[in-house]
Amino acid sequence: MTQHTSAHPASQEAIELDAIIIGAGFSGMYQLMSLRDKLGMKVKVLEAGAGVGGTWYWNRYPGARCDSESHSYMFYFSKEMVNEWEWSERYPQQPEILRYLNHVADRFALRSDILLNTRMHAASYDAGRNRWHVRTEQGQHFIAQFLITAVGCLSSANVPQIPGLGDFKGKWYHTGQWPHEGVDFTGKRVGVVGTGSTGIQTIPVVAAQASHLTVFQRTANYSIPARNAPLTETFKRYAKEHSEGIRHIMNTNTNGHPFRMVDRSVTATHPAEREAIMEAAWIKGGLEFRAAFKDTLLDQEANDIVADFVRKKIRQIVKNPAVADLLSDIDHPFAAKRPPVDSNYFETYNRDNVSLVNLRATPIECITADGIKTKDAEYPLDIIIFATGFDAMTGSLLKMDIEGRDGLKLKTSWQAGPRNYLGLQVPGFPNMFTITGPGSPSVLCNLPPAIEQHVNWITDCIRTLRERGLERIEATEQASDEWCAEVNRAANATLLAKVKHSWYLGANVPGKPQVFMPYAGGFGHYTAICNQVAQDNYKGFSLTR
Ligand code: NA7
Fold first, then answer.
1. Mean pLDDT over residues 205-234, rounded?
2. Domains along the chain with CATH numbers
3. Is residue 292 over pLDDT 60?
4. At what angle are helices 447-467 and 243-252 packed, to 10 degrees?
5. Is the C-beta atom of 217 inside 6 A of ligand 1?
6. Can you tell me the distance from the alpha carbon of 77 to that of 33, in angstroms, rounded to the nearest whole number?
7. Does any ligand 1 atom lie closer than 6 A to the CB of residue 148?
């Protein structure tokens, strides 16, 4: 892997560019390649990390793996690259994804236009010149016509404010900010707080090494076995030979995954038959389990049946009935929070060195010098792992000081929750685009196809502006209001909006306004809307010279 930092431009001198992109993960790199190589624009990417990769640069916790299947977790814009890249397992592990993203950087010679170790601090729009001024923590100043955020949806770590953390004598880590040198758990008493997708991935791996693992569970969670395995040569060949068909399925279905939701309903299927269908889906494993019926996320009765099936599986796997009860006492509909997939998660609770603490009954009171103290006990620990998730979707955008037209701050504009048009542009912020922003399918979708769609749309939009001699594009207030109403409508048509403590709503971060953030109307449908808007002369945007 080649990792080199391109020289920083001299600090105070302003550098004039056509576009500036924030973040060098999947989105930032493809956006750079598109604007620079397709439109011939002068572009730089600012990246806070010391390497490319975004989410996959930071999330190095043990067991970190993507829940999307590897042949779908890649770019499809280059058929040559699809053919030349080989994944090793059904689900790619973090080091393999990072290798892939470094391959992308090298293959398209992107590194010379990526400034590593460079964190954007503030951006402000100068209406007189129609230019964005971007300043970095390192003191650089860039001026560009377009500002494109590619900061990822799950990149701002949420470390809970538990009293006493500063007194803890052991080590603590957040999974999203994992030390590059790794952590040795041998002989250690480890506590994991959090049982979302991340906790569920890391718990079995940590348990295999630690002397004792205590899991602190606030909300019990469903999980489907991933059934990870090395990819066979036959499958690798199949994925390459059928890449066009796979791409078409991903780009036209609900969630951007390489399979379609089966057109049958839970309630209309005979009980014996649906049991057999769920059993087969459980054996096959992965997120496709969710696609076995079309109404699982739409109809409470249908969902109850699927949820009961998963609860039954948990009780079959976990030998201690009291622990099985705690793990299967799940308070939300199946898949209404992000559904994890796992490798031996529930089985891990059968180990002698693993115990489970129910924070609903005995909440954490504080962290002491020696460990975690709940309402009724103190758990001595050497290491605490916070698998407590992210200030999702808006966290990374709002951390930056972004000021649009007439001194309007993004923080002010989004005081009551994110408000924008198509998840792509915020009114008051001309020529600023947010790749996989709130209001787009983003986290409800397999992300590489969602990113390709956004980058292609933005690139076509900028090309059109240039061809027509236009300089400026801004979402209108009216279109943004209408789009927010559509985002709410789409969420309310599903069971997703029923969960009041989900990060889709921002409920995991104290004080965050609770607004359903991703667009739940389906990826294929959303793409069709975006294409229609472009065809209708960018309806809902105001275009000016
Ligand atoms: P998630 O899905 O937000 O899960 C975080 C977990 O941490 C969840 O179980 C939370 O319980 C728990 N949590 C959060 N704060 C606390 C406090 N203060 N005390 C106890 N427990 C807490 O994050 P992940 O990293 O697992 O997954 C994020 C996404 O990354 C995932 O969906 C993939 O797309 C990749 P809660 O449910 O809020 O009660």
1. 98
2. 15-52+110-156+392-544 (3.50.50.60), 191-386 (no CATH)
3. yes
4. 80
5. no
6. 11
7. no
